[in-house]
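Handout, section B. The chain below has 79 residues.
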Amino acid sequence: MTPPSDRDTMDPHDDAPDFASAKAPIDRRMLEALVCPMTQAPLTYDAAEQELISKAAHLAYPIRGGIPIMLEDEARKLE
């Protein structure tokens, strides 16, 4: 009998991508079509923070795994 290899004892989820922190590229056409759900104003993409900024509503909507979360409850308030 052979001893188990590291591969046999590894957690199968270790190789799974971490979609919550992934900085997936955003489709420019999608960005052009999205507006702030509160004000209907255009949004600005902040690649470094992975957020869509609504200057009109003073909110920053998060982008998680390449998916914009366009919910007011999930948005960060801007000062």
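Note. The first helix runs from residue 6 to 9. Compare this with the example in section A.
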